[in-house]
Amino acid sequence: MLAAALALAYAAVTSATQPDLARVQDPIPYPTVFWMVPQLLPSPEVVFGGNASGGARAGLRWQVTPLLYSFGLNRKITPWRFLVVDPLARQNGSVEIYFSPEYIAAGGAQPDALVARTGVRSYFPILARGESLSVSLGSSVFLYEGRAGAAFEGGVYTLSGILGLQLTYSPSNLPAEWIATFRVRYF
Amino acid sequence: MRRTSPSSVALLALSLAAVGCRPFASSMSLLFRTPEEVPHKITQPVRADARLAVLWVGHATALVQIDDKVFLTDPVFTNTVGQLSKRVVEPGIRVEDVPPLDVVLISHMHYDHLSLESLRMLGPRIHRLVVPEGGLTYVPDGPYADVELPRWSAFEEDGLRVTAVPVRHVGFRYGADSAWMRHSYTGYVVEYHGITVYFGGDTGYEPKNFEATAARFPHIDLALLPIGPIEPRAFMAPSHEDPGEALLAFAALKARWMVPIHFATFVNSTDALGDAKAALERGMLARGLTAEQVRILAIGEQHVFVAR
């Protein structure tokens, strides 16, 4: 009796997970050394603060995408990406949750600082499915020298998203009110 | 499946999936030149007097007519590929003059073969898009039906049969995706009304692939075969035939006619403009092949191989 129940349950599960023949077998992106090395490269940035901040300072920003949903892919392809995101999936329209550690160098009266930032960003294609030109909008929360704050950002990207320019505005963070990031990203 | 060495993957990534800038000063001027004009472009490419006709649009893009069916290979109509590789001759037909296409074949994922912007430009003119296994990963939805064809599988519609056949190349688009995009490259054989056309896409010289294709398709009428890029040879050879190898492939396929493709259109190697054609002509002379057997078309030129 138990065996029959298990068999029925197994049949129910396996029949429910039979591949849909109309759906293609997705090549699934996954972390490799070739992917990981470029992720270590930071994007340089320039940080502008309020009057007391001592002017522009240099910074570095890394980025990780734990989860992305693409609305620009073929409907037969899974729209979800984890960590490894192919450029088309990102630049042709997507929403991602991202995490960005940042380092901001000392300058004027400000000491150097580590910033932990997480947020949500959407990409929209402009030219050639976003491979030639795309833009992004996003918002984030961050921790800067133990203080939490919020930020808004916009970006523009080219060369399949490898190069881009992001502008981040943090009204509550006077020492790093504006950040211009020259984004370098490969996957 | 051919494995790609890490060094070649790295080099290809640097050149944005095999599309890069020529490093030599003699070639640099091409990067800043307006694409050469194609005079007297054909505006009505579908011919009532043709059973088999080919119009070379440039690079791997060829418009093929078999009776009432028309298909286009690897359409690229943009002025650059991957934003870096410059077109040196404009496309051989205006996009607005491209007729309704029964099938568009995509051989692999590189920017000079899968041009998403060109697919957008052609839009609803395309009835059916055929891509290699895994290829839809990089083909967003469009106003056309799409299908993936794993190697040796076939798709047939209204008597037009397309079979994916083996070639030697790589399946990735961006470089880092070489780990999982391992199968997305192919050649095709198209059959209709007793006429058979082979499209090699982009391939290194691998005799067994051509022999296997010839064994399954013993009456290939026309072979569209890539003849470049040639140099640097050590880098190109695993995935690109040179003109001499293309002639060997033509022989292995036992095809009746050959049209060379994939040369003299984009800046994508250290070859000088004209190198591939000159090497092909030398090879033809050495092998006793005539200009009728190996038809070297100019970009924008159409040739009727089988008349009604």
Structure description:
The complex is a heterodimer of chains A (187) and B (308). Chain A is mainly beta and 187 residues long. Chain A has a single domain (41-184), classed as Porin, CATH 2.40.160. Chain A has three helices and ten strands, in the order ααββββαββββββ. In chain A, strand 1 (43-48) and strand 2 (57-61) form a beta hairpin. The radius of gyration of chain A is 21 Å and the shape is elongated. Chain A starts with a helix and ends with a strand. By secondary structure, chain B is an alpha/beta fold. Chain B has a single domain, classed as Metallo-beta-lactamase, Chain A (4-Layer Sandwich). Helices cover 19% and strands 24% of the residues of chain B. Chain B has helices spanning 6-14, 25-28, 116-122, 207-216, 233-236, 243-253, 275-287, and strands at 50-58, 61-66, 69-73, 80-81, 85-86, 103-105, 128-132, 145-149, 154-157, 160-165, 187-192, 195-199, 222-226, 257-261, 302-307. In chain B, the strands form three sheets. Chain B has a seven-stranded mixed β-sheet, with no helix packed on it. Chain B has a six-stranded mixed β-sheet with strand order 9-10-11-12-13-14, with helices on one face. The radius of gyration of chain B is 18 Å and the shape is globular. At the A-B interface, helix 2 of A face helix 1 and helix 3 of B.
Query: Could you name the ranges of chain A where pLDDT drops below 50 across 5 or more consecutive residues?
Result: 1-23
CATH architecture of chain B: 4-Layer Sandwich
Specify the biggest β-sheet of chain B: 7 strands, mixed
Order of helices and strands of chain B: HHEEEEEEHEEEEEEHEHHEHE
CATH architecture of chain A: Beta Barrel
Largest sheet of chain A: 8 strands, antiparallel, barrel
